[in-house]
Amino acid sequence: MNNNHLKTIAAAALLTLTLPMSGCGGGDSPPPPPPPCEDGDCPPPPTGTAPDNPIVYITTDDAFNEIGAIYLVDPATPGESVQVNSPLVAGGQLGFFSLSPDLSQVAYLAFQDTATEGELYLVDLAEPGTSTKLNGPMTAGGFVDEFVFSPDGSRIAYIADQDVFDQFELYLVDLATPGVSTRLNPDLPENGQVSSRLSFSSDGSMVLYSADLDVEGQFELYLVDLAAPGVANKVNGPFVTDGDLFGDYRFSPDGETIVYMADQDVDGVRELYAVDVDNLGVSTKLNPSLVADGDLCTFQFSPDSTKVAYCADQDTDGTLELYIVDLAVPGVSSKVNPTLVAGGEVQSGSFRFGPDSDFIVYNADQDVDGDNELYRVEVATPGVSAKLNEPLPAGGDVSIFQIRPDGLQLTYVADQDTEGLDELYNVDLSTPGASTKLNPPRQGSLVFHLEITEDGLQVLYIADQDTTETYELYRVDIASAGVATTISSALPVDDANSDVVFFATAAENQPAMEGPAPEPTASFAEIQDTILTPTCAVSGCHTGANPPDGLNLSAGEAYSNIVDIASVQMPDLFRIEPGDPDNSYLIRKVEGSGIVANRMPLNDDPLTEDQIDLLRQWVSDGAEDN
After folding, report:
1. What strands lie across the sheet with 119-124, from one edge to the other?
2. 587 or 440, higher pLDDT
3. In Å, how far are 331, 348, 540, 546 from 15, measured between CA atoms?
4. Model pTM score
């Protein structure tokens, strides 16, 4: 299946959500395009009541590789969208957004009032278009990097260089008192930073964050009690010299345990650890011993908080497989998948527990090397799998999937009927291998970002369904397969490249699992064309005569500026160390671990797993200029 265009669109989508908020600032970009309706044709503004089940989405102005605007639509009146964000100053830009837990408000990042400071704003969905600035006074050139709502939606924690330019710290703002923020971290060392990936505890009383508070450049986990701001409680156990956090860390659903990945015991060996919230600093390794050069990739908690599933090349170096460990029995794991075909592996991050924690669905080229399919395994009988999708054509793949909230059905995207044509399918888990196509006949070839509604009756998805390479938001009733409704408003007729690229709803109780891209070519040309040029080497950022840290990533310049070149932020590491992705600082920057300052791209949405895999593959293969 050829996903190259999807990779470009998805990368532009997610990275567009973040790049405008970088320290590179507003540049000379024009203000966003008008709403996708003409004067006189737009629906009347709301009368003071937010929709019960709002859908909020963003469009891009592809001519400028920026977010065009944030829109609200009531699913009861599809196609009648209103703009959420306030007007932007000339040269202003939008960043990413988040719906509040009660679905009544949207917070977003923007260079809205000035083209030099990126700040945090809140909009009540009963009054879209009217925003309130949340952050405290911002230092010149500063910006908010990341934020997260508290579980009850009353407060927001955010990271910003609010007080000292280019030193990112952690702040809390109560939505009842916008503009009045409290710093949560203690004083940082001279070059210390709070890094990305904030999370609240389930009761909203604590915030989990990473920072290099003790050793410059060594990021560790800390917990702050909101009743005692400025007091950092170290979560992890002692790190070996040069040890670092890697990738994700999170609270268990019940809030009693924190799990993280780190090379805590052996430098360069990424393993999985758990810490009881009531006994911080005392960690337990969850995985058993790994094969030489083995590593973990990602992990998921079971909804009942008793188990963790993780992917790793635990038994065979270079072959990712899926394992479960019971938190009550650390160090003893069960392999979930059966024996894989030669060359096969479980796809990193593409697995999920059922809502009752009794089964796992995962994506793997288990039976045919290179053909990624969906499998279900009962937690009680690991190693015995049932294939969920129907047979695929040669070269076909399942790409993304989501389990219905009641755990009875599953929706997935695959080129199941025609190789290269992504379509939407639904399968009853009681009858695996018998699926129903949900979408009507299509003009385009790609489907991405799907969500099943909370009631489990409908699917929302983005696709180029009506016009090839024009991506819009659709809804289909599972009981009325083949009949889709366009949810987003008509895209601007004067911008043929405008697309819907992301949406948020109440359905996001479990994000859809992203599947694999095609086998990476691992060429620098592809990395330049699909990652560096469209997302990094843009006006005001890593291009031109004076790019940040002297790092010009434009075509013809990037390779000589990264391979075997010492990082400015961590001079003991090369930006790219051929053959060693873990110690290549550019890889660390996009993965968000073991870095100074902030993850790249900035804000909440990282590079896709496929893009990071492509970068890692290229570095592992020797980082050639190919």
Report:
1. 94-99, 105-110, 119-124, 131-133
2. 440
3. 37, 20, 15, 22
4. 0.76
